[in-house]
Amino acid sequence: PMKLTILIHCPDQSGIIRSVTTFVHQQEGNVVYLDQHVDKQAGVFFMRLQSEFEREIALDTFKAKFEAELADAFQMEWDIYTDDYKPKMAIFVSKYNHCLYDLLSRYNSGELKVDIPFILSNHKDLEYVAGQFNIPFFHIPVGKDNKEEAEERQLALLQEHGVDFIVLARYMQIVSPKVIDVYPQKIINIHHSFLPAFVGAKPYHAAFERGVKIIGATSHYVTADLDAGPIIEQDVTAVSHSHSIQDFIAKGRDLERIVLSRAVQLHVGRKTMVYNNKTVIFS
Amino acid sequence: PMKLTILIHCPDQSGIIRSVTTFVHQQEGNVVYLDQHVDKQAGVFFMRLQSEFEREIALDTFKAKFEAELADAFQMEWDIYTDDYKPKMAIFVSKYNHCLYDLLSRYNSGELKVDIPFILSNHKDLEYVAGQFNIPFFHIPVGKDNKEEAEERQLALLQEHGVDFIVLARYMQIVSPKVIDVYPQKIINIHHSFLPAFVGAKPYHAAFERGVKIIGATSHYVTADLDAGPIIEQDVTAVSHSHSIQDFIAKGRDLERIVLSRAVQLHVGRKTMVYNNKTVIFS
Amino acid sequence: PMKLTILIHCPDQSGIIRSVTTFVHQQEGNVVYLDQHVDKQAGVFFMRLQSEFEREIALDTFKAKFEAELADAFQMEWDIYTDDYKPKMAIFVSKYNHCLYDLLSRYNSGELKVDIPFILSNHKDLEYVAGQFNIPFFHIPVGKDNKEEAEERQLALLQEHGVDFIVLARYMQIVSPKVIDVYPQKIINIHHSFLPAFVGAKPYHAAFERGVKIIGATSHYVTADLDAGPIIEQDVTAVSHSHSIQDFIAKGRDLERIVLSRAVQLHVGRKTMVYNNKTVIFS
Amino acid sequence: PMKLTILIHCPDQSGIIRSVTTFVHQQEGNVVYLDQHVDKQAGVFFMRLQSEFEREIALDTFKAKFEAELADAFQMEWDIYTDDYKPKMAIFVSKYNHCLYDLLSRYNSGELKVDIPFILSNHKDLEYVAGQFNIPFFHIPVGKDNKEEAEERQLALLQEHGVDFIVLARYMQIVSPKVIDVYPQKIINIHHSFLPAFVGAKPYHAAFERGVKIIGATSHYVTADLDAGPIIEQDVTAVSHSHSIQDFIAKGRDLERIVLSRAVQLHVGRKTMVYNNKTVIFS
User: Fold this and answer.
1) Based on the domain organization, do D135 and D42 belong to the same domain?
2) Confidence of residue C97 (pLDDT cuts 50, 70, 90)
């Protein structure tokens, strides 16, 4: 059977669930999953619904009817996905390979259901990893003088390959609004986090200096506000005085790989919604 | 047998372990536990050693010999504790009772081996809890105008009862240097923490607004630098979009009680050492 | 506004969500929460729905209509709860007080919204704790010879006080089917757990002997099959070779209190459903 | 400077630490790390000591003196390792690639300081992964009829390449005592674990049926007693009713890779000691 995933958010009001489930029923679909959330502060309703159809349906017709009969009336923002489309994921890296290997080994084993049209880097260091997995690699250096030109080349590549979303797998360059605007809530970043916060240039050192017992990693959608976008996934690990800063960083790497991969899986599974600067992550 | 716990820190150098274990042996003690740590950055050596003595020894003589034969030569800062002394712990509270109940139920069951000469509060709300456990309760209001006088009264009570250390069990007043200086690294505080940090007056709200997935709590020794003292213990718990700010706060309460109690146990067990602004926590 | 929580499970089939949300709408209710789950293996649909009503409604009429218009057609098992009823919780204890204190301090602070008609024990040791919180205490000894009679007295007390559910807060007696049958999925137990399993009489010792690194606790509904009922909540904590069996047990106590309290909160919040031997825990 | 790691266990008695640190001092070494543990039940003393030597020392002479002056007197079992030797690690796999990729990406990035003379499998499925990382791959099928012969070939390969230890990265064959006896406490295995235990052929299914909330993984040294060897490392992750058995298994895979890699790092770092069936894991 054909399977659709419908994501909706709209102003909270009475009757949304009833109307959507009735609509799906009229299209001869069977609801196999429904989760919803109301953000009472913002007055916003969120829903993720999956529906199976015994008979093949015309997606365009379905979407047009959905727009006409429901979306207008409830002022919905919505997306409808079919199960058979593999999203195209570009990976941006610099010199660290831990997140890249984690993503590629999941891709390779079939666990991560995406196409990877290319890996892009501002350095050549990881070209060999792309080679190990037979994935095209593009080297676009980024410097003070050519940042704008580099981003033009990035955008050209992204469009040429029909990329759906971008994973910054430890890409050590700030992505500018020019690229973010083309991929809103479609660029996933990973960075270390601390409990409590340690601001400044060397957070691992500051955390170490205060004898911190827990370090973490946060994956989020990239927004113009640096490292302050909506959070997709986080995790932590214990440290102690017996760990050196190098140990902290090694443990941080392990967190980064697992947290980034989980965030990518949530995105690919259409389980994330963003409103204002906040995520709703369906299970 | 009599049991001593020796805590030492000094400039890192060759021969410390050998010298201390030889000294203990000469005093007819048997080393039953030894853990050490070298902070290579700071060049400081830390050691926790426990020793059993078949024959009763004179503690004052032991300490004097230790000072003369070892401490001088190695420029040691040291403490020596016997097992049979129960430290006197004062608890400061305001209106929240969750940490207080946690401490008192552990005290009551014999798990927390301290004496509690009194509970002190700037409010009367929790007087009844002190009554439930038959512990003296002192009410010292703190306002803009009487802060100095209130602290004089606090210090008088602390000295009168021979208090060894203070636990701020959600005491919602800033403790001033006047008190901190009398109890350096002997005042234990608890507060919530976030991953990453959310600065400002309402961190729970800021964390909620960004869809944070993990919240935490940190227990630390109080220093003049507000909530920036050396960390004793931390823990975290998972949250999601489905939790309200009230849920965040309730989960924060559960973390606060468990993290504060663990920190107090580490302190009472003589397992914490502080150097610069950092803790070494022995296991 | 009046608030109802509806819990349903029934054979999985098309149209359930649509029918229930339409029914609630016809009764002038507004769906404020809906979560559902399909156990595909068992072919069972589960739903938790909360609805607000601007106008006061007659609960009996609502239930009768629900039964007539929905429950029959879909072969539903269902419960409907109002928000204003505080369930009556009996606590059974033996000699350990850690879980009891945890429950009572949450009850005392208003966090645990139940009435506690009595605490019952097969020993007198914890009578003083009941006294601290002004809760009636009944001592019913249980021996080889009087087990049946003791359970008759327990049942009489439970019925006399209209108890809705029972918490075994480290009650060291096996509850017999006679009591379980009167309180199916309404008796909550807590016990330690290990990773992996250690069978036999002394699991802490067996786990210790193998150098286990993680210990846990499990809270579950009591069934006739000892300690094998549907799991409500679990948690774990790290241990190491440096911990003694006594440390294991102390850490186990901390887990037991927090896991049992969370399980009780989930039950009181009407967030648990049981089918076959498995729970669905709504968030 | 040259660095030695000394691992010792012996009957617990007075004077061990003093004697060993004095010996190291006499050899002109400086103790830079010392951790010890006493298993009071077993009456066994464990120590891990690291020592730096300004002058190059003759390892054989050092070992001979150590044996003559200390080991005999204290009935020590001991190992002394230098920092500059990379242990030779063989990897055994079957068809799952997740643990293999994790190990190889750490090896590739220099994080895992070993040599990998070969990967061995009873299937050909993962030969291509060995090729991606340019590591020799040997295919030795194992069936009912050729088990003994297969193990002879395994042992021949292991000896020919001077393998120091073996990692079973999801090798789905029971390793027989013939191989275990040659590599005692030098074969590292990984398997899933549950909380509480679920015995029988399909533990994931049994755990799923009872609505388990936490699943785990355990890495241990292989002994003749199947999956009951001394535990090196464990970790867990949360699951819920919303996860399918396939989700359980995927989460289990993620645990297996991280737990196995951590166990391998502990072994390579000479941080593990085994006595009876229990590990002491130094930090």
Assistant:
1) no
2) very high
CB crowding A157-179: b at 16 or more within 10 Å, else e: bbeebebbbbbbbbbeeebeeeb
- Whether B122 and B173 have beta carbons less than 8 Å apart is answered as yes
| Residue D197 pLDDT greater than 80, yes or no | no
Closest Cα of chain B to D14: distance in Å?
A: 6
Letter string b/e over residues A113-132, b meaning 16 or more CB atoms within 10 A of that residue's CB: ebbbbbbbbbeeebeebbeb
CA of D135 vs chain A CAs: smallest distance (Å): 13
pLDDT of C151 strictly over 90 = yes
Cα(D137)–Cα(D150) distance, integer angstroms: 15
* C-beta separation of C82 from C64 below 8 A: no
Q: Which of residues 115-134 of B touch C (CB under 8 A)?
A: 132-133
Give D137-159 pLDDT, tens digit per residue: 999 999 989 999 999 999 999 99
Q: Are residues B138 and B194 in the same domain?
A: yes
Please give the sequence-ordered ranges of beta strands (E in DSSP) within B40-168, or none if there are none.
44-53, 77-82, 89-93, 119-121, 137-139, 165-168
D22–B17 CB contact, under 8 Å: no
3-state secondary structure of C79: strand
* Of residues A42, A33, A34, the one with CA closest to residue A12: A42
How far is C119 from B194, CA to CA, in rounded Å? 38
Distance from the Cα of A129 to chain D's closest Cα (Å) equals: 9
Q: How many domains does chain C have?
A: 2
Q: What is the ipTM of this complex?
A: 0.90
State whether D66 and D151 are in the same domain.
Answer: no
Which one of B40, B196, B240 has the shortest CB-CB distance to A218? Answer: B196
* Structural domain that includes position B67: 2-82
Helix residue ranges per DSSP H, B67-185: 72-74, 98-108, 127-132, 147-160, 177-180
Beta strand pairing status for A44-53 and D77-82? unpaired
Domain boundary among D22, D49, D82: D82
Are residues B41 and B108 located together in one domain of the fold? no
- pLDDT for res C122: 97
Answer whether D135's CB lies under 8 Å from D119's CB: yes
Nearest CA in chain C to D198: C197
Contact yes or no for D87/D164 (Cβ under 8 A): yes
For chain D, give the number of residues: 283
Of A39, A210, A278, the CB nearest to B231: A210
Q: D136 and D126 in contact (C-beta within 8 Å)?
A: no
C-alpha distance from residue A212 to each of A244, C174, D82 (Å): 12, 45, 31
Considering the domain architecture, whether residues D65 and D169 belong to the same structural domain is answered as no
- Does the distance separating the beta carbons of B236 and A278 come in below 8 Å? no
> A170 vs A93, A148, A173, B252, CA distance in Å?
6, 20, 9, 31
Q: How many CB pairs under 8 A join B and C?
A: 35
CA of A197, closest CA in chain C: separation in Å? 25
**Residue position matching structure tokens 């008979």:** A55
Could you tell me which residues come within 8 angstroms of residue C36 by beta carbon, excluding any fewer than 6 positions away?
Answer: A33, A34, A35, C17, C45, C46, C47, C48
Which residues 8-27 of B have a C-beta within 8 angstroms of D?
14-15, 17-18, 21-22, 25
On chain D, the residues whose CB falls within 8 A of the CB of A242 are 283
Q: For position C33, which CATH number holds?
A: 3.30.70.260
Is B39–A230 a contact, with Cβ atoms under 8 angstroms apart? no
C159: left (phi over 0), alpha (psi -120 to 50) or beta: alpha
What's the sign of the alpha-carbon dihedral C181, C186, C188, C193? positive
Q: What is the mean pLDDT of residues C45-58?
A: 94
D211/D209 Cα distance (integer angstroms): 6
* D235, C214 contact by CB (below 8 A): yes
Best mutation site among C13, C20, C21, C50 for testing chain A: the one with the most A CBs within 10 Å? C21
Sign of CA dihedral A111, A117, A123, A124: positive
